[in-house]
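Progress note, project year one: complex with PBG.
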Amino acid sequence: MSHAPVAPYPALRFRRLRQADWIRRLVRETVLTPADLVWPIVIHDGEEARIPVTSMPGVDRLNVVEAVKAAMEARDLGIPLVALFPNIDSARKDAFGSEALNPSGLVPTVVRAIKDAVPEVGVMCDVALDCYTDHGHDGVLVDGVIRNDESLERLVEQSLAQARAGADIVAPSDMMDGRVGVIRQALEAEGFKDTMILSYAAKYASAFYGPYREAVGSSKALQGDKKTYQMDLGNSEEALREVAADLAEGADMVMVKPGMPYLDIVQRVSSTFRVPTFVYQVSGEYAMMRAAMQNGWLEEERAILETLSAFKRAGAAGVLTYFAPQAARLLG
Ligand code: PBG
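Model obtained:
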């Protein structure tokens, strides 16, 4: 990229364009709007309307009725898309994540309810088995090993169950090799030609998923870590290969995850491929900011908007964030 020649001071004074709000707004390069936000919603299959998630102050697990209300709120706030994450009764979990395939399970039920009540809001579903397995892994576990190809068969069935319920976007977050291709094939074969795939293409094995695992109830269950399938934090070139592979297999959009510690990856992916690149400001990022805000150590509104704007500046088309409704209200 070439730059305009820089005049020497005092011909050039950078501060001229910073002297008042109106001029700062006029020359700002990137702008955040509610249309850039995706709201991750945790749902549960119990009776209670809302159950607070201890490690994520301000985030509740919602029952079906509350989830529909949240989607209505998203519509009213101008948030285009909600993403569903289920917390199911542990009695329904097994080694193979069978409940993920249940056409009348929690996720398909909530998808149908939202698409009935608020069809103008997009609904995205996570494709992975971790919310449904008694070991907390995203794939099928056999003899201590997460089996790639055995997992694919289940992930395909899970995606189809979501598409049949009316999900607009399926989002494989499992990091098994080849999953985007087989999911795309299956969707086409069943006539779901407009179902979008947003792949968690560059998803790193991260400590920042901790609070989420409490939210969906997989933290106590999780045996070991996810390093044999999620990416190693030291790698950047590999992220580009992951994205290239998912696009070649039929992903419409890609994601980088986590967010703030991986802004370099967001920037590289979006500038290299020039496809809609999303970024997930994950539960640990949310929790750490909330904790500081509750202590009065961070200015709440500015800190939220600053982090979300930084994702846009790095090249993201949109951001998954638990701050979505609050941020949308702030943005008016
Ligand atoms: C797994 C999944 C995870 C998140 C979204 N989907 C956690 C994991 O990989 O262990 C994390 C979201 C967050 O931390 O906010 N399918």
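Residues 32-331 form a domain with the TIM Barrel fold (CATH 3.20.20.70).
Residues 148-165 form the longest helix (18 residues).
No further modelling is planned for this target in the current period.
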